[in-house]
Structures are given as structure tokens and as C-alpha cells.
Design goal:
3 domains, Butyryl-CoA Dehydrogenase, subunit A, domain 3, four-stranded mixed beta sheet, Butyryl-CoA Dehydrogenase, subunit A, domain 2, Acyl-CoA_DH_CS, Acyl-CoA dehydrogenase, alpha+beta, Butyryl-Coa Dehydrogenase, subunit A, domain 1
Length: 380
């Protein structure tokens, strides 16, 4: 039987989260876009209501729920056009702590991640290194009971707001191949030698703070090593399936949102004496988009069931990541075109969505990287 996230407890949870968005997020989102940052209080309110890391075990103050509840949160955020990065925190970053952290680390950090008192970031990308993680230059040298970190990271979501940053760094710069020298070290916000660089002025997702991070002889307790030394690249690869699935779900939800309100707009907007939908070219264009959006939804639902069952679907998730994010961008282009001049005005949602969706086929692995992975997976 296909997974139904619109009935029973799932429906109750979805309705509750929608009410949270209506009360705490949507009325203020334009203000946050202008400010370029989301207030910490929103994270804490989300935590109070059980909307952060719902899958975390009860002994760490979580609800012990399934990943399905995270999917509901991700979908509803996208469909509301509100890109508060709860999914980044809950389903991409915190799982590293839950999977690879020691019991002491879990006890120390997970409750705060659930409550919203701890906001997380992951620092992989560097000014000269994007998708090629093996080429990172940030180093962590062991000195007694500490690691000394040196390097710069960029494009870090939650870069300014974060309390806890998982940093990918080289603990063995001479490793051959290079990726075997990468470790994950957790840097806390008050670590000596850690500073925040400039906040990046982005094309879209403007309410989500994105910044540079600087580590200058940054001293971190050796106990903040996540998992085994020099195993960081393996950990990153193990978590990419869920990361890219989450990104695909976000893009799918945004595509559904844009199509739905564009259909309504075209029904109401008249030109040459009749609704925009009554012109064959326009109705065909909407029909094409509706077909692609439906195909994306079917693919996502299949992958979600396989992921929940613990299956390895790296190839299929890579396919979804490139195709659905590209489809969402095509949808944005045609939806804006159907709005005409109004689509170019900020008062209409397509204007912001058009800007926001552009990053989806870049972050978490570009379309080109996804195609490389697929090629390898099919033996090319």
C-alpha cells in the first residue's frame, strides 16, 4: 500500500504545522526577506511545537517519530513559499550527530537541536572548492587535547545564526587519495579563533542567512571530533542520499505551489476579452507543466518509500535531484511568463519564487554532478 501522508496522525501533524506557518511565519516572512535573516525566536517556537528533528529519540527530548514527519514539514514550507531552513537543520545536519556522535555528544547537543536553542550549520564549501570535497584546504591539526583549525568556508547556510557548525577539514593533508584525510569536527559558536565573515547578498532565499566562516588557529576540543578521524568523507557520502532527497522534495513542493497559483491567476486574468486559460497555447503550456509536476510527485513518492525502507537509491535520488530541480526552474520560467508584466513585480508570489528556485539545481550537488553520479551508477 502506498504511503499516505494526508490521513490519520500525518494529517493532524500537517494541519498543526500549517497553522504554525499561518501564525508564526507567513505574516512576517516579507520582513525577514528584507532583513536577510530569520529571528532565533521562530526556531525556538518551532522547537516548542515539535517541528524540529521530530525523528530524534525520546531520550534526547525528541518525539521518536519517523522521517515522514520531516517530509511533511519540508513539503509545507515549500508550498507556502517560506524557505525557513528547518529541513537543513533537522534532516541534513543533525543526523550526522545522531549517526556518528558519541553518547556524550548526543546528550550534550541533541536536546538543544530539538528545542531550537541550538541551530546548526554544516561547513563544506570553500572559496575555491565546491562539489569537489576532496580538494578542501581547511586543516585541523591535533595538538594535545585540541584540534587547531585553519581555513575559510563560504556559502554556509545559517552561517550567522548557527550555534554549532560541523566542519569538513583535512586531518591528514598528505592522504592519498586526498578524500581519505577528511574529518568532521564540531565547532561551537564561542570557540577561540572562530569568526563569522561577511553575509552574502544573494539572488534568492534572501531570508536565509548565508555567510563566510573563518577559522584562524581555532581551538576545538578533541572530543568534538565526530566519528572516526579521517572517515569524514565516508560520512558525508552516506548522508547525501537523504540530503538530496530533501532538496528534491523542496523543489517539488515549490513547483506544485507555482503551478497551482498560476492556474488560478490565468483563470481570473482576462486579455482580449477572455481568460488567459482560454488561449490554446496557454492551456497547452499549463497542461505540459501539470504533467511534469505530476511525474515529479510520483517519482518522489516512490523514492520516499524506498528511502524509508532503508534501500540504497543513490542513482534514483540523483535522477530526482537533477530532473525535479530543473523541472521546478522550467515551471518558474513559464509561470512568470503567463503572469506577464505582473510576474516581474514583487507583489506577486511568482517573482520571489522565480528567484528562490534558481539555487535548487546548484546546492547539494549541481545538475552536472548528479549526471556524473548517474553515469557511474549505470556503469559508464
Amino acid at each position: 500500500m502506498a504511503l499516505d501522508l494526508y490521513s490519520g496522525d500525518y494529517k493532524l501533524f500537517r494541519d498543526s504545522f500549517r497553522k504554525f506557518l499561518q501564525a508564526e511565519v507567513i505574516p512576517h516572512y516579507h520582513e525577514w526577506e528584507e532583513a536577510g535573516q530569520i529571528p532565533r525566536e521562530v526556531w525556538q517556537k518551532a522547537g516548542e511545537n515539535g517541528f524540529l528533528c521530530p525523528w530524534v529519540e525520546e531520550k534526547y527530548d525528541g518525539a521518536g517519530a519517523g522521517f515522514e514527519y520531516s517530509v511533511i514539514i519540508t513539503e509545507e514550507l515549500a508550498r507556502a513559499g517560506t524557505h525557513v531552513m528547518f529541513p537543513l537543520h533537522s534532516d541534513i545536519i543533525v543526523p550526522y550527530i545522531a549517526s556518528y556522535g558519541t553518547e556524550e555528544q548526543k546528550q550534550k547537543w541533541l536536546p538543544g537541536c530539538v528545542s531550537g536553542d541550538i541551530i546548526t550549520a554544516v561547513a563544506m564549501t570553500e572559496p575555491d572548492t565546491g562539489s569537489d570535497l576532496a580538494a578542501i584546504r581547511t586543516t585541523a591539526v591535533r595538538e594535545g587535547d585540541h584540534y587547531i583549525l585553519n581555513g575559510t568556508k563560504t556559502f554556509i547556510s545559517n552561517g550567522l545564526l548557527s550555534d554549532l557548525i560541523i566542519v569538513a577539514c583535512k586531518t591528514d593533508p598528505r592522504a592519498n587519495p586526498p578524500h581519505k584525510g577528511i574529518s568532521l569536527v564540531v565547532v561551537e559558536k564561542d570557540a577561540p579563533g572562530f569568526s563569522r565573515g561577511r553575509k552574502l547578498d544573494k539572488m534568492g532565499l534572501r531570508s536565509q542567512d548565508t555567510a563566510e566562516l573563518v577559522f584562524s588557529d581555532c581551538r576545538v576540543p578533541a572530543g568534538n571530533l565526530l566519528g572516526r578521524e579521517n572517515a569524514g568523507f565516508i560520512y558525508l557520502m552516506e548522508k547525501l542520499q537523504q540530503e538530496r532527497l530533501v532538496c528534491s522534495i523542496m523543489a517539488q513542493g515549490l513547483a506544485e505551489r507555482m503551478l497551482n497559483y498560476t492556474i488560478e491567476y490565468c483563470r481570473e486574468r482576462h486579455i482580449f476579452g477572455k481568460p488567459v486559460t482560454k488561449f490554446q497555447h496557454n492551456s497547452f503550456k499549463l497542461a505540459e507543466m501539470a504533467t511534469e509536476v505530476e511525474l515529479g510527485r510520483s517519482f518522489i513518492n516512490q523514492l520516499l518509500e524506498k528511502h524509508l525502507a532503508g534501500e540504497r537509491v543513490v542513482k534514483e535520488v540523483s535522477m530526482a535531484k537533477w530532473w525535479i530541480t530543473e523541472m521546478a526552474n522550467r515551471t518558474a520560467y513559464h509561470c512568470l511568463q503567463l503572469h506577464g508584466g505582473y510576474g516581474y513585480c514583487e507583489e506577486y508570489p511568482i517573482c520571489r519564487d522565480y528567484r528562490d528556485v534558481r539555487i535548487f539545481n546548484i546546492f547539494a550537488g549541481t545538475t552536472e554532478v548528479m549526471k556524473n553520479i548517474i553515469a557511474k551508477e549505470i556503469g559508464l
